[in-house]
Design brief:
By secondary structure, the chain is an alpha/beta fold. The chain has helices at residues 39-51, 67-76, 105-119, 144-155, 169-178, 196-204, 220-233, 237-248, 261-268, 277-292; strands at residues 9-12, 15-18, 22-23, 56-58, 84-89, 91-93, 99-101, 124-130, 159-165, 183-187, 208-212. The chain has a single domain (10-216, 249-257), classed as NADP-dependent oxidoreductase domain (TIM Barrel, Alpha-Beta Barrel), CATH 3.20.20.
C-alpha cells in the first residue's frame, strides 16, 4: 500500500497535492543533457511514481532539453485527474550543455509553448520563473520584466498558477506585487539553511516552499553526523534528509529525483520514517555547523 499519503498535503493554488512528490530532472542524460541511456527505465520510474500515489511532478522543458517532458507525456498521458505538473522557464541550454538565461519576452513565450506542446497540455498547472542573475544560487536583480510576461500568459489562459525559483526574499516581494505567487523553489537542506526565515514567512502566507538538492553542499563533518543518524535508524542518508525536510514546516513540498525504481521506492517511504527527538537535535545541529563554517 502507498505511503505517500502519510506525508500530508498542501495546496498548490487551487489543487491539493501530497507533500512527497517527484522531480524529473534526473531522467535526462548526464548533466541533464540529452536522452537517458535507458528510456524504458525512465518511463517505468514515472509510472511507478504515479502508481505509488505521487500527484506532484516537477519538470522543465530545458531538461534535456525537451527530454523529460516528452518522457512524462509518453509515460502518463492522458494524465490522472489529480496530477499536478509543475514546470519552469527562464533558462535554456547551450549546444555544449551550458545553462543560459532566457528572459526575453520571445524566449519566455516560446518556453511556455514548448512546455505545452511536449507535455500535451492546453494549459500548464504551475510555471516557475527561474531567476538567472546567479546560475548557482539566488542573486539580486529585478524580475519585473520577465514575470510580467509570464503574468500576461496567465491572463491568456496558458498558465494557471505562477511560482518563482532561485530567488531572494526581495525578488519574492517584487513578484507578489505583480501577481499571485503560489510556490518558491530554492536550494535548501540540512546544511544549506539560508532560507530558514523565508520558509516560515511563506508558511504564514500559505505559500509552498519546494527545496532542491536535499544532499547538496555538505561538509565532511555534516555528512558524518547525517550518516551516523541514518545508520542508527536503519535508513539511508537521503531518507533521513528528506524526513527532516518533511518535519521542517508544513508548507515544504519534496521533489526528490531519481532514475532508479529502487531509489524511488526508498524515497517514497520517508513519510513513515519517525525521527526521534535526539536525532532531530543532532540533525538540526548540522545547520549550526554550517553557520560556523
Amino acid at each position: 500500500m502507498s505511503t505517500v499519503h502519510k506525508s500530508g498535503t498542501f495546496d498548490l493554488g487551487d489543487r491539493s497535492v501530497s507533500r512527497l512528490g517527484y522531480g524529473a530532472m534526473q531522467l535526462a542524460g548526464p548533466g541533464v543533457f540529452g536522452s537517458p541511456k535507458d528510456p524504458e527505465a525512465a518511463l517505468a520510474v514515472l509510472r511507478e511514481a504515479v502508481a505509488s500515489g505521487v500527484n506532484h511532478i516537477d519538470t522543465s522543458d530545458f531538461y534535456g532539453p525537451h527530454v523529460t517532458n516528452q518522457l512524462i507525456r509518453k509515460a502518463l498521458h492522458p494524465y490522472p485527474g489529480d496530477l499536478v505538473i509543475v514546470t519552469k522557464i527562464g533558462a535554456r541550454r547551450g549546444a555544449d550543455g551550458s545553462w543560459r538565461a532566457a528572459f526575453s519576452p520571445k524566449e519566455l513565450t516560446e518556453a511556455v509553448h514548448d512546455n505545452l506542446r511536449n507535455l500535451g497540455l492546453e494549459a500548464l498547472d504551475v510555471v516557475n520563473l527561474r531567476s538567472m542573475f546567479g546560475v548557482h544560487g539566488p542573486a539580486e536583480g529585478s524580475i519585473e520584466g520577465p514575470l510580467s510576461v509570464l503574468a500576461e500568459l496567465q491572463r491568456q489562459g496558458l498558465v494557471r498558477h505562477i511560482g518563482l525559483s532561485n530567488v531572494t526574499p526581495a525578488q519574492i516581494a517584487e513578484g507578489r506585487r505583480i501577481c499571485e505567487i503560489i510556490c518558491v523553489q530554492n536550494h535548501y537542506n540540512l546544511a544549506h539553511r539560508a532560507d530558514d526565515a523565508l520558509i516560515d514567512e511563506l508558511a504564514r502566507h500559505g505559500v509552498a516552499y519546494v527545496p532542491f538538492f536535499p544532499l547538496g553542499g555538505f561538509t565532511p563533518l555534516q555528512s558524518s553526523i547525517l550518516f551516523d543518524v541514518a545508520r542508527r535508524l536503519g535508513a539511508t542518508p537521503m531518507q533521513v534528509a528528506l524526513a527532516w525536510l518533511l518535519r521542517r514546516a508544513p508548507n515544504v513540498l519534496l521533489i526528490p529525483g531519481t532514475a532508479s525504481i529502487t531509489h524511488l521506492r526508498e524515497n517514497l517511504t520517508v513519510a513513515e520514517l519517525d525521527l526521534p527527538d535526539d536525532a532531530v537535535i543532532a540533525l538540526d545541529g548540522i545547520g549550526t555547523h554550517s553557520e560556523a563554517a
